[in-house]
């Protein structure tokens, strides 16, 4: 804010205590700061009006005046002062949603400050090394939840795989079990990299699971028969392609089935010849029972050869009814 001046005549006689032994805020904070040896007071601009009153009390008591600086307030999405009405202000709630402390701290530090290196992802020692109060912004910074999620995602993707897997598996097991599904640690382990690519906070795993997007990894899907062929196919074409896929999959070795690209290589020539949409839609639907899902070759590699053959056969049986 630069230099700020006040006409002290406008302050009038302000109250500093309710009684001899009951001091109010202005008097108490001045005495406390002096006894603590505070030399610099950096606080929000909503305290600007308090500062001249506190300086007058300091002078009256013979205290040394600290250096003051006032920074802009954090704003909600509607650019009003951040509050419980305009956004969640409880740090605990962000932890409960799965935001990492270091990511949250990094984001908050960048609100209203741009380091001269222009970097965004920084550790605390790096921030301390680069911080200069002169680089604080002059206007209030808007608290952006999507930007906070972006920061958290950077920290999640940079987390060592073993550490990420340990926490992700614990959350996934709890969420899968809560849906009444049978948990498989082996299946869960295969989903770690997919989750790392898709989530921004730990809570996203619970949301994905609660919405049924992982169900087909832990139980047999239910089929809405009319959807198996897809928009580009018919029940007859779907039966033709699923029968062809049944033969192709049966010929893929167990070692190849551990790799999505190997499965794709064995299926792709047929799919390209017959039409990728016409072939891969019923294949995906047979595996998941869903119109939308991750890459079907990845899903097949997680489910394993025997389960894939079983589900293709189940989809064919549904079409035959």
Summarize the structure in words.
One of its GO terms (molecular function) is ATP binding. Residues 1-150 form the Glutamyl/glutaminyl-tRNA synthetase class Ib catalytic domain. Residues 184-316 form the Aminoacyl-tRNA synthetase class I anticodon-binding domain. Keywords: Aminoacyl-tRNA synthetase, ATP-binding, Ligase, Nucleotide-binding, Protein biosynthesis. It is elongated, with a radius of gyration of 31 Å. With 321 residues, it is mainly α. Helix 2 (51-61) links the parallel strand 3 and strand 4. The longest helix is centred in the middle third of the chain and has 18 residues, at 161-178. The mean pLDDT is 92. It folds into four domains: 8-71, HUPs (Rossmann fold); 91-156, Glutamyl-tRNA Synthetase, domain 2, CATH 1.10.1160; 160-217; 225-320, Arc Repressor Mutant, subunit A (Orthogonal Bundle). It has helices at residues 25-36, 51-61, 91-96, 101-110, 124-130, 145-157, 161-178, 185-190, 192-198, 203-210, 235-250, 260-274, 276-288, 296-303, 305-320, and strands at 17-19, 22-23, 40-44, 67-71. The protein is built from 15 helices and four strands.
Indicate the low-confidence ranges by residue numbers: none
The secondary structure category is mainly alpha
**Radius of gyration, whole Å:** 31 Å
Q: Please bin the fraction of helical residues.
A: 40-55%
CATH architecture of the largest domain: Orthogonal Bundle
- Identify the overall geometry: elongated
CATH topology call of the largest domain:
Arc Repressor Mutant, subunit A
Tell me the domain tally.
4
- N to C succession of SSEs: EEHEHEHHHHHHHHHHHHH
CATH class of the largest domain: Mainly Alpha
* Global mean pLDDT: 92
The separation of the N and C termini measures 76 Å
Q: Please, how many helices?
A: 15
